[in-house]
Specification:
Blueprint: H1 7-21, H2 35-40, H3 46-58, E1 62-65, E2 69-72, E3 79-82, H4 83-93, H5 98-102, H6 106-111, E4 118-128, H7 131-137, E5 144-154, E6 162-169, H8 170-173, H9 190-196, E7 202-213, H10 216-222, E8 229-239, E9 244-253, E10 257-260
């Protein structure tokens, strides 16, 4: 005989089903009933209802905020990253007219949102290269680097779609002072166009992808439950001169990121 489902689990499943079908009162952003109200409706004890809500929070369906009750989570857009197509498209964009570069971007492409629905947030600083950065760029530890911290969000929302740390050798970037100015972001045509202004063309991009659990700070910024999985993308851009000219460390929420690849294969000879 199958074990009996705990009461809290049954209640959690009932609420999850209401959320799944979008019932009135169970749509993204809706306030769920107070614990005391569900107790009064005979859904279980305070302990049972609290356990159900905590389970739903762990599963990423609701957010419990002290003093503000429990709400159905509002999830930022799903991102589909097709890196082969993405990087080729981004490089081509850098050579387009100003009007086209100003009205298009890779984040729009990943999310399917309009360009005016995306907000870019950027902070720049000069930092010395640690051992890892020095090895990546082939420079001496302590070399001054331009650190560019980016995050994007949908208009009016504070939830980050991704967290990006991008690095350039400061001396190289300084050939065009505009590249040191965060107020110029979002830069039409992105990094490809930025580097083209100082005579650099990116020939190859190498990606490394790992996963781990989000830190509390990352979870807060990305709007995901603590201990959720994140993708860590290490993206290295190599110039036609075979120099590493840009490195990005990107953190993506696992629950709403899809990575797609299409690999051409050689045909067998007859």
């Amino acid at each position: 005989m199958a074990p009996k489902t705990p009461q809290w689990r049954g209640l959690a499943d009932e609420i999850a089903q209401e959320i799944a079908v979008g019932s009135v009162g169970y749509r993204p952003g809706d306030q769920l009933p107070q614990i005391r109200d569900l107790v009064a409706q005979g859904k279980g004890s305070k302990t049972t209802v609290l356990a159900a809500y905590k389970a739903l929070e762990t599963e990423g369906l609701v957010s419990m905020i002290r003093g503000h009750g429990t709400k159905v989570r509002v999830r930022p857009p799903h991102q589909i990253r097709q890196h082969q197509d993405r990087y080729v498209w981004e490089k081509r964009l850098a050579k387009q007219r100003d009007e086209e570069r100003q009205s298009s971007g890779v984040i729009d492409r990943d999310t399917g949102l309009g360009h005016d629905q995306i907000e870019t947030h950027a902070t720049f600083s000069a930092v010395p290269a640690n051992t890892e950065l020095a090895e990546r760029f082939g420079v001496q530890p302590g070399t001054l680097m331009l650190r560019r911290e980016y995050w994007h969000s949908t208009a009016g929302d504070s939830t980050a779609l991704s967290l990006i740390d991008s690095y350039l050798v400061h001396e190289v970037a300084a050939r065009n002072p505009d590249l040191l100015d965060s107020s110029k972001e979002p830069w039409p045509g992105g990094t490809h166009h930025q580097l083209s202004t100082i005579g650099i063309e990116i020939e190859r991009i190498d990606d490394g992808i790992r996963t781990r659990l989000a830190t509390q700070e990352e979870a807060r910024k990305l709007g995901i439950p603590v201990n959720s999985a994140v993708f860590l993308l290490d993206k290295t851009s190599i110039s036609t001169g075979q120099d590493v000219v840009e490195y990005s460390h990107v953190i993506l929420a696992g629950e709403r990121t899809e990575l797609r690849y299409s690999v051409p294969l050689e045909r067998w000879g007859k």
